[in-house]
Model the fold of this input.
Amino acid sequence: MAGPPAPPLAHPPLEGAARLWGTIALSGATFMNVLDMTIANVSLPAIAGDLGVSPNQGTWVITSFAIANAIAVPLTGWLSQRFGQVRLFVFSVLMFVLMSWLCGLAPSMPVLIAFRALQGLAAGPLIPLSQSLLLSSYPPALAGTAMAAWSMTTLVAPVVGPVLGGWITDTLSWPWIFYINIPVGLAAAAAAWAIYGERESQVRRLPIDKVGLVLLVVWIGALQLVLDLGKEHDWFDSSLIVALAVTAVVGLAVFLIWELTEAHPVVDLRLFARRNFWASTLAVSVGYGVFFGNVVLVPLWLQQFMGYTATDAGMIMAPVGLLAIVLSPVVGRTVMKVDPRRYATAAFLTFSLVLWLRSRFNTQADFGTIMIPTLVQGVAMSMFFIPLTTLSMTGLTSDRTAAASGLFNFVRITAGAVGTSVVTTLWESRAAVHHAQLAEAINPANATAMATVSQLMAGGLSQQQALAQINRMVDQQAFMLAANDIFWASSLICLALVPLVWLMRSPSRAAADAAAAADGAAGVH
Done:
């Protein structure tokens, strides 16, 4: 998660009921934000069906939010110093609520995507600012307790999101997955203003890298459009996709050059000169892209081809956070005693195991068989974020941690959106290949196929209806095999990330190197 920007003014810690209600208000806003990242996953088929698009086009509901959120995260430091942390936090919550209401009212997919993008922009500052304000509420001795309470909300939300989203979709209607944010957000904004309004941070006028921000939006937006529109426009046979791809590549190149020469860059790319930072950012981003892409894929597969309702698909996905809730506090307390690289290695090995188990699914897999890997995945989650975040910050001075945390999370969130687009595109592409291979066996020379057609016709279907029924079965098998391909490839990617973990220095080694460097500098002087 994004690290908090350091407040310019120190306020005394809150006490008693004020601290309790402050914690609840900040955690409630965080819960609402994280919930919105997962609650829509199981509702995608219903949203797509209602708005007249394919379920894969419906994934724009997720990727538009994620990309906008990623763009907003690096701006949090500048915005909080320009307008004040409390004002920015309350404004962001209220804008999130307004966009949630408009998402529920959206009459078409383009309108919904637009409002989801604006909702993602509003959500950007919520996590880093909730951390910052919460830490200012507690004395330093209780900082660990404060962050443990905050972390629980980020772990509980992914458990509640799929179940709640599925139940709302089946019982009410999909707009209510957005409407439920309204009372939570209004209560959190009112409580936060009442408690923290008198504790506003100092406001300073700082320059903003406008050119860098525009370039950032251009190249990320173009890249996402290539990934989301490519399949529909036959990829690079389309002049539109070629133009977007060129825009993304040129935009990225110019962005890199500009940010490396700008005095106040929107993204401090010089951080990538540090081995621990670039290696941990790459590891967590690729891992998160694989994880999030598969989190979106599983509910789509269950609802489209396995006959699951949105509620049942949500129940399958819910256990992903159960073991994470139990184990994360243990990892948090011991991460500096146990080499964080060991935890990160265990996380990737467990992710690989989970995805390998899924690659062995077939269309006869029952509820329990599908749920077991999801439950085990919680073990990997507990050892994924905390150690890699710790490793990414190793050796950084305090004045660079906020920028580092913003960049770390910007890349991670972007990778999640890209992972979703890549996985859903590959799923359909591989399914088309498998469908063609399976369909070749449906011919007059295949006695089993002809016997099946005859049996269906004997049951009252016409020949055309019988062949349509067989085509549906072929579709189910093709998409199952395509999902297995993706699970298998994802498992291999997680294994390949293990060596990357061991390129990083352990925190103790990095501290020793830093001390030696300081002693050497002192000797020179």
Remarks:
- Residues 1-9, 514-525 have pLDDT under 50 and may be disordered.
- Residues 209-265 form one domain.
- The CA atoms of residues 266 and 298 lie 36 Å apart.
